[in-house]
Amino acid sequence: MSAAIEIPYNSTERPDTGLYNAKLGVWLFLASEVMLFGALFSTYVLLRTGADTWPSGAQTLNVPLATFNTFILIGSSVTMVMSWASLQMKSFARFRLFLGLTLLCGLIFLVAKGFEYHEHIMKGELPSYSTFFAIYFVMTGLHGLHVIGGLIVNGYLWGPGAKMWRTDPARFTNRIEVAGLYWHFVDLVWIFLFPTLYLLPGK
Amino acid sequence: MSAHAAESAHKQTRIYRIIGAVLFAATGATVAAAEWHHLGITLGIFVAVFIATFKGSLVAGYFMHLFTERQAIHWVLMLTAFFFVAMIGLIMWTHRDQQGQPHGIFTTSPPAAQPHSE
Amino acid sequence: MSQTATIGYPEAHPHIDVPHHELSFWRKYIFSTDHKVIGIQYGLTALIFLFFGFCLMLLMRWQLAYPGKPLPLHFLTRWLGDTRMPGGIMAPEFYNQLGAMHGTIMIFLGVVPLAVGAFGNYLVPLQIGAQDMAFPKLNMSSYWVYFVGGVVMLCSFFVPGGSAQSGWTSYPPLAVINPTISHSLFTGQAMWLTGMVFLITSSLLGSINTITTIVQLRAKGLHWMRLPFFVWAQLVTGFLLLLAFPPLEAAGIMQLMDRLASTSFFLPSGLVVGGKALNVSGGGSALLWQHLFWFLAHPEVYVLILPAMGIVGEIIANNTRKPLWGYKSLVYSVIFLGFMSFIVWAHHMFLTGMGTTINAFFQTTTMIISIPSIIILTALILSLWGGSIRFTVPMLFALAFLPMFGIGGLTGLPLGLATADIQLHDTYYVIGHFHYVVAPGTLFALFAGIYYWFPKVTGRKMNDTLGKLHFWGSLIFMNGVFMPMFIMGLAGVSRRLYDGGASYLHAEHVLVLNKVMSHSAWALGVVQLIFIVNFFWALFAGQKVTNDNPWEATTLEWATPTPPPHGNFLKVPTVYRGPYEYSVPGARYGFLPQNQPEGA
Predict the structure, then answer these.
(1) Which among B12, B84, B103 is the nearest to A34, CB-wise?
(2) Full domain range(s) for residue A182
(3) Predicted TM-score (pTM) of this structure
(4) Which residue of C360, C435, C560, C591 is 20 to 30 Å from B81, comparing CA positions?
């Protein structure tokens, strides 16, 4: 007696709002993420202004490695949006290529991050060392967790999830768009994190 | 997505590559500006935030196609931006407008007699 | 009976025919993606937590009425053991645990899941004419994440040191060092923080679902200004949950780091605990926690009240047989209220040493936010004018909500004025204020909602006589519990005192009120048994309703079979009019349902 329910506007846009459901859903999610990272930026600002001294990123952190990571992440944003454009141009092979590159860039980012963390931990620069390192580890750590989350989603869509291209290409294209929006946001957060933590002068 | 969307997608790929290049350049500019110590703290922070905002707008506007997105999304984000600014701004205002000690209550020891930057 | 559905808009995909198959017990009742099943899951779980949180308070009230006296319930004191109740007398640490967990459980495990998770999930798709929420699988995950969070919170009672015991507000430095400095995840406070991360995640996922559903899945003809007020309230509530919760999630992670990884996000330099300097870097800010916590917790109180106002609105319109007065002002007020709620939070921090300018700012925004509240209350009251009032059980609760919320709201005003707050902050006055809004306020509205929608959900009616007894008993005894709190607060009795003020000279003349409140609370507990009996009896043996729309209501949830099947509507509805077309001259049954075509 149970029929399958068809939720409208999963693949097509609702006329008056011009949106399909997942697009609104992901933007709402990203709005909440803005508030999440916003709270951490508030923390940075408050801890820094309340401190007598505050180290500069250049003195304490690995700026060249983080700069490299910034290029990697921006590059991965380009490949991500290219993978979506490839689907719009009906090229599944190019989609696979570009999403694969995105995954690769993400992995490189994480490896570099891991190397950075390892350096600090070996020097005894743990989160408990100072409020600077506390906020550094929490902000980059939370960001890193978001990268991992994105890799899992993108990995699924590259692998088993890609089957949907054959059965419902419009909906699959939307899924890639939505995954892309999330991934770009992860890049966006890093674009602000990088100068804040690594490049600002100390006091 | 219809056939005409496929053509515009092709045009878009060129734009994406250009934006990517601009972002790379802006990243280089940020790092270079950070090296320029003459700026001082306040101006340094301003330049960093300015470039980051510029880069962020490109990512949001082109890659996340916010520039062409629907009103509803714009409203949600403007609302979020307002609360984001209010959160940071009001917390900072509270910090500046402390009663009594210039340090506020971040330390339990009384403020030292020497002058300091706060 | 097949539930095929064609969707109103032509561009949407036609229904894909899949073979009809029976779902397994697990997929149908436990891991269901049907919003109605999920709503019921939320509802039953939340009611159990509400009852548990209530019992914690009943236990606290013994200590407050008879401080230092052994509890005469030997089975209970034996079970609680010598650490919590040595010799039957409540240990101060246990009192603090009860206090912190009563607040946490009632708010985050009880009221919000009931108001938003249960009522929201069950009714919003129905009232907008949709077949389910926009993201049914996400909906299911939201419930189970809430469930895990709740289990974590409950388990925190059983770890060494007991549960969280630094107030539901968990202010550092106390929360970080209480009861001992420990780097274990298995302490009450660490589990509280972990539980909160789960609960916040559940809320976030739920709010994304609610907002998307209301925006995207409204039936054909259901324009924004034809939405039932309940749906507007849930929409604004969704935004509050979406945007206000993340800062607390961030703060929770940071406090967890302070406890587990010895960071100093919230620990200032120079802290000395138990005569020893703390071995941490220092440099943190205890106020930072307060900012991030209250940034959520203020909008949170509007999350507590908005769905309740929505429910009261529906029930008043239905039982006065006339439209709500000032529908537009209700809608604009609820939107403005939601917006303002984000910029008033530091009225909880007036006594933290903030300067006069910033105090004035928050005082001003707080006074401004009382305006839309008053408009909403006034509109609901004016809706009674000229109505043919039916004093059904839901209506009794809805009517009582009005003056009770009025008292709660009015008593908030002195708290929102910084100068008056100097006297009243952290006294029993505050406890009286917020309990009036939440207990004879929100809880009454939720009871009203249960009595009102019970026939639609179950096909049976709850007993009216028991309902009326439950109502009058609850009304009388709730006032007995909370009204004296204003007197105690004005006399200067602080909150969170283990002995209820007995050791303070200035409290001597009001101490007797502790006994009045405790006995009222215990009587209130007995009265709730009437509700519990009625609820379960009606589930199995209640009088069956003969009609899909026993209250003769206009909104879409009454246009379904009873109970609504998977997919909700036999035919996807089209909406032709606003939500409260009651007492329409010439209408066949005296009212016009939203989905009834013109001239039918």
Answers:
(1) B84
(2) 68-199
(3) 0.94
(4) C360
